[in-house]
Structures are given as structure tokens and as C-alpha cells.
Design goal:
By secondary structure, the protein is of the alpha+beta class. It has eight helices and four strands.
Length: 224
């Protein structure tokens, strides 16, 4: 038997099956369950959504626990770990993540499961606290007010100058996004940043030939 055969045999015998005692398993699962519960409530409190998705919060908690169990299994046997990598490689997730914060919480849950499965409980707890503080502090940082959309419909085809004069009176920023003229009607969409919203709408409505005025806010990107 050559040196390479001895090395291979010792390598396989050393990593083929590593016993993980029951207290280690219970401790890892207990810590990851606490962190998963923490992530569940953090998702509920830190995310500002119109419709709170409770099922997604439950999925985050379950994902952390499942990931920790997978890491514990990988540590127990190198053969199982290779087979598990092959099995997981065929899994495809096709659900689109529309909210960026959902992606953050997904990675948070997965990383918590990996860290707890590796036995680094202090790191998992500190990381969770740091992430919570970071999200909370960054959310408190004020940003510039998002622009609004002024939508007007008028029968005065030559009233654009008067309209823009009123808009400039109440808004330092104004940009015409669209201008449609058809069948004796002029439809305009103007992006404005204004504080006296009701005064702007009243004065624009009082212009000659004005049929309708709408001022809409949107959740798009904020321009500086």
C-alpha cells in the first residue's frame, strides 16, 4: 500500500462520519429557533408594507431552522454533504422578489441558519442585533420629498403658459412629463415638488377652460 492510498484512507476515515452529540444539536436548534422568532418579529416591525405578508414571515423563520439543520447534516458526513449539494443544485426558485427588504430578510434568515449550524452562536446573535440597528437607523435618515404628478385637462389650447406660471409660483421644480393635444383638449402631466398642495390645485382649477386637475403622489425613485 502506497503513501497515496494511506492518505486517501485516512482522509475518508476521518471525514466519512463525524458524530455530533445530541446536546450540540439541541443547542444549535434552540438558538436558531430564538433567532428565527426574532427575525419574524423584526420583519413585522421594521418593514413598512401596505399589506403585511404573515406567510413570508413564517417562511423566514422556517428557512433559518432548515438551513441550520442542513449545516449540521453536512458536518456529520462528507458523503451526505456532497449528495446534498447535488440535490439542492437542481432546485429552482422562480418567485420574483419585488421588495428589496424582503431580499435582505431572506439572506438574514439563511445566514443565521448557517452560522448557528456551524456553532458560532455569539456571532449569530451579534449579527442579528447589528442588522436590526442598521435597518432602524438608516430608515430614520430623512430623504428629500418625492415629486408629485400634476395632471390637468383643459379646453384652452393656448393656456400652457398660464398653467406653468401658476406651477412655478408654488413649485421650484417643475418638469413637463407629457403633453397630449387632441379633439380640442390639452392634457398635461407635470412633475412638481410642492408643499402647498391644496393652494396649487385651487389656483390651477380657476384657470380659463380648465376641466379637471389632479395631484398624485407616487412611490417611485426620489430625484435630488
Amino acid at each position: 500500500m502506497g503513501f497515496s492510498d494511506i492518505f486517501k484512507k485516512s482522509f475518508i476515515n476521518g471525514f466519512y462520519n463525524v458524530d455530533i452529540d445530541l446536546p450540540t444539536i439541541l443547542l444549535s436548534l434552540a438558538v436558531v429557533c430564538l433567532i428565527a422568532l426574532y427575525i419574524f418579529f423584526a420583519y413585522r416591525l421594521l418593514t413598512r408594507r401596505t399589506f403585511y405578508n404573515k406567510n413570508f414571515g413564517i417562511a423566514l423563520a422556517a428557512l433559518a431552522i432548515i438551513t441550520a439543520a442542513i449545516i449540521l447534516t453536512i458536518q456529520s458526513s462528507i458523503v451526505i454533504s456532497l449528495g446534498m449539494v447535488g440535490a439542492l443544485s437542481i432546485v429552482r426558485f422562480r418567485t420574483a422578489i419585488k421588495e428589496p427588504m424582503d431580499l435582505v430578510f431572506l439572506f438574514w434568515a439563511i445566514s443565521a441558519g448557517i452560522i448557528c449550524g456551524a456553532g458560532l452562536y455569539s456571532l449569530a446573535i451579534i449579527t442579528s442585533l447589528v442588522i436590526t440597528i442598521a435597518i432602524f437607523v438608516l430608515d430614520l435618515i430623512p430623504v428629500t420629498k418625492a415629486p408629485m404628478l400634476l395632471i390637468v385637462n383643459t379646453r384652452d389650447l393656448d393656456g400652457e403658459d398660464a398653467l406653468l406660471a401658476v406651477v412655478d409660483k408654488y413649485s421650484k421644480y417643475a418638469k413637463v412629463k407629457s403633453r397630449i393635444m387632441a379633439a380640442g383638449q390639452l392634457d398635461m402631466v407635470i412633475e412638481v415638488r410642492v408643499s402647498k398642495e391644496s393652494e396649487l390645485v385651487k389656483e390651477v382649477s380657476a384657470l380659463k377652460g380648465m376641466d379637471s386637475v389632479s395631484l398624485l403622489s407616487h412611490d417611485g425613485e426620489t430625484t435630488y
